[in-house]
Design goal:
The structure is a homodimer. By secondary structure, chain A is an alpha+beta fold. Chain A has a single domain, classed as 2-Layer Sandwich (HIT family, subunit A), CATH 3.30.428.10. The first copy, chain A, is built from seven helices and 15 strands. In chain A, the strands form two sheets. A ten-stranded antiparallel beta sheet of chain A has the order 3-4-7-9-8-13-14-12-11-10, with helices on both faces. Chain A is globular. Chains A and B meet through β2, β8, β9, α2 and α3 of A and β2, β8, β9, α2 and α3 of B. β2 of chain A pairs parallel with β15 of chain B, so a sheet runs across the interface.
């Protein structure tokens, strides 16, 4: 079974996949072999995934048959496994624990091609409901400390299967990057007695430098210190710590702003590879809800992360967020028929 | 001039390159255009780089002409610039500072192809001396807080020029990842009154599970909680905080273990892309030297870093370090004539 190991210097946890260990010669050539051929996520191929744990489908249809519009299955190659005892060990000075956890795949629609930029808003709403439903379910496992929802789009961003899908992972530890956000937000709150995310929303709405789209419940903007060109954040305007507390009306607004934001990024950057991550608080009770504010991070993968970034945790972003935001706003303001590629390029020159 | 910006939640600094800002259409197609054609780092093309700040060359040859065997020049497209005032500003709730710093390129040999695996040991020694000389020089700028030496090898690891070169950056802040190492090492020292790196060396030498090569002064091994398959660490066996304090005899031993380690990785993984980073302490006085221990990290880039890693700072390593280390040790034990590709592959099966 997989194993969690802690770096003795930084405290960073790593999952070591002992079961399906790759041999050196398996790395020698990494080719993009995923295009074309058999798709395990397309309708009609339900037997080629593990049995579904959730699906939205007509009442009279059977599980693991066609007819669904959203389908959640356990990951066939899970990073963590739900079975087994949760144990911690020493190995000399090192710390390890059994790789207990859950790892599911959410197949976002029957369509092999359409993703957030192209799907109808009501389908994105269904995806968001499924995220929420699985999060509520996974919280019942008391061994777990954190649930993360993310999506990799495009080979360069790490997607190994082409059919649009996202992933849900429940972890037995709060990951380092989440802890950093929690600690930072907590320090800010101690000092100002205000939520740092609420302050960010106020400033981004007031000066409009980095804002892209806004509706009743959500704002999308490019973070002031974004690590990647066109890195984008979507945040609920009302302070909310847990993604799963989202209101029904908010789901409608979130689906709309997601479709708008992803459409703009797709037009501007020619359907870029990206990573999409929902940042929410850990389980209830683990953290004070006054200082944390859930949000979505979208990271287009246009640049290579190199030695400098790996060595320092210090990123170089070659496009100021203000410039990128202005570009996206101009694109949004254009009538649809003018949004041809030639027009887009000339708008920047 | 470039600008440093701080993320208000996590405290992470980002360099925003305002001068040579990239437009969206510049990202649309990233092609590998670096192969073939004109090389600014090859002998005879010295005029196409900024004027050299250091070179090892015959006494009677002129700067910026042929004859050198190691050459250091300012980066033509620096992430940070040495000129200008060092200022800090507020922008509402956000923090920024001018992008003061130094960014140099070290051309590792006149050869366009040969890198650490192929260069003679005495040439690697010369490269190491140049690292040390530049570090000593850069320390004289009192505005700087940290110096980092790194190398990107291969397009996938972020190298934009093919000719083997490394980079030296002086930064006005201590980067986050370095701070994490310092804090972790300090906590370990407070608890155990021992250096965590010295303890790691003792355990790796005692059980031999993850060790690869050892000589009088250095050990190379695969870290217990390595983030990447075949991630490798080279560490001085005697406790030393500053890379630039390296002894002359140690330079010889370091060149030897680097050549051996990189040769094994090249054979095992078919010349993989990698990032190479020297982790040393910040400037003297900034940190207590009892708990920090300089070391080298080598990160082959065989897997894609995806949403899960970006969202959590939690890595999935599909090859246990013990398996990878055993594989490299077997390779090292083979007579050279048997080290053909077919032999390597069959050794794993």
């Amino acid at each position: 079974m997989p194993e969690l190991r802690k770096d003795p210097v930084t405290g960073r946890w790593v999952i070591i996949a002992t079961d399906r260990a790759k041999r050196p010669n398996q790395y020698v050539k990494i080719e993009e072999e995923r295009k074309g051929g058999f798709c395990p996520f397309c309708p009609g191929n339900e037997h080629s995934t593990p049995a579904e744990v959730l699906s939205y489908r007509p009442k009279d249809s059977l599980p693991d048959t066609e007819g669904w519009w959203v389908r959640v299955v356990p990951n066939k190659f899970p990073a963590l496994q739900p079975e087994g005892d949760f144990k911690r060990f020493a190995e000399g000075i090192y710390d390890r624990m059994t790789g207990i956890g859950r790892h599911e795949v959410l197949i976002e629609s029957p369509s092999h091609e359409h993703t957030y930029a192209d799907l109808p808003e009501h389908q994105i709403e269904e995806i968001l409901w499924a995220f929420r439903d699985r999060m509520v379910e996974m919280r019942k496992d008391r061994r777990m400390r954190y649930i993360m929802i993310f999506k990799n789009w495009g080979y360069e961003a790490g997607a190994s299967i082409e059919h649009p899908h996202s992933q849900i992972i429940a972890l037995p530890v709060v990951p380092k990057r989440v802890q950093e956000e929690l600690q930072g937000a907590s320090r800010y709150y101690d000092f100002h007695e205000r939520c740092v995310f609420c302050d960010i929303i106020d400033q981004e709405r007031a000066d409009g430098l980095r804002a892209v789209v806004e509706n009743d419940s959500f704002l999308s903007f490019l973070p002031f210190a974004g690590r990647f060109p066109f890195e984008t954040c979507i945040v609920p305007k009302v302070h909310t710590a847990f993604f799963s507390d989202i209101q029904k009306n908010e789901i409608v607004d979130l689906a709309r702003i997601m479709k708008q934001t992803f459409s703009l990024l797709k037009q501007a950057l020619n359907d870029p590879p990206y990573n999409f991550v929902i940042h929410t608080t850990p389980f209830e009770g683990a953290v004070d809800t006054v200082y944390y504010h859930w949000h979505i991070e979208i990271m287009p993968k246009l640049t290579k992360v190199a030695g400098f970034e790996w060595g320092t945790g210090f990123y170089i972003n070659p496009t100021p967020p203000e410039n990128a935001a202005e570009y996206l706003r101009k694109l949004a303001a254009k009538p649809v028929e003018a949004q041809e590629e030639g027009q887009i390029v000339s708008a920047t020159s």
